[in-house]
């Protein structure tokens, strides 16, 4: 499937097809596993704060890296803007699991269901990102499937970790 068939705008596609988006989903899954002994609200707060801190740290590091690579010629404002744009995938990718955790926090769904649903959603999203990334350069099914499975496996490992630690 193409981005057009999936109704992904070029801008959103660039943000989602980034290492930051994949890293963001893995980070969120790890934070859910770590905070899963509590309520959905605690997991929501932990994940939201952690994602914001990692995003800010990533933007800061990216800005410094751009300034260092250009001996300051890129300018602070341009370096900050470019780094924030590149890091946007981390924020965007965290939205679906945060919404699910918020549903649990507001008691629309049970805490345990919210935690598990957020982890499963992240794993499915990771697989989808792996599939779409390879589909952009290959029409062959095998590399697409392998990419989806490998990318989803990062989330799968964290689901297994939650199952082992918390049950």
Key terms for this structure?
6 helices, 0% strand, 167 residues, mainly alpha
Describe the structure.
Helix 5 (111-135) packs antiparallel against helix 6. The N and C termini lie far apart (38 Å). This protein has six helices and no strands. The model has no long low-confidence stretch (mean pLDDT 88). With 167 residues, it is an all-alpha fold.
Total of helices: 6
Report the C-alpha radius of gyration, rounded.
Answer: 17 Å
Q: Quick one: biggest sheet?
A: none
Provide the helix percentage. Answer: over 70%
Q: Mean of the pLDDT scores?
A: 88
Compile the SSE list and pairings.
Layout: H1 10-16, H2 19-35, H3 40-69, H4 76-105, H5 111-135, H6 141-166
Short structural description:
This protein is mostly helical and 167 residues long.
């Amino acid at each position: 499937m193409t981005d057009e068939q999936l109704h992904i705008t070029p801008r959103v596609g660039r943000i989602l097809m980034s290492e930051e988006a994949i890293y963001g989903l893995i980070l969120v899954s790890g934070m859910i596993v770590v905070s899963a002994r509590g309520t959905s609200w605690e997991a929501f707060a932990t994940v939201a704060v952690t994602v914001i801190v990692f995003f800010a740290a990533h933007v800061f590091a990216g800005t410094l890296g751009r300034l260092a690579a250009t001996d300051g010629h890129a300018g602070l404002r341009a370096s900050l803007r470019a780094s924030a744009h590149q890091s946007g995938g981390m924020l965007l990718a965290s939205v679906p699991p945060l919404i699910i955790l918020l549903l649990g926090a507001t008691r629309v769904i049970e805490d345990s269901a919210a935690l598990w649903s957020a982890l499963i959603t992240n794993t499915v999203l990771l697989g989808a990102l792996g599939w779409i990334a390879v589909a952009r350069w290959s029409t062959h099914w095998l590399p697409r499937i392998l990419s989806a499975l490998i990318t989803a496996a990062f989330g799968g490992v964290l689901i297994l970790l939650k199952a082992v630690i918390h049950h």
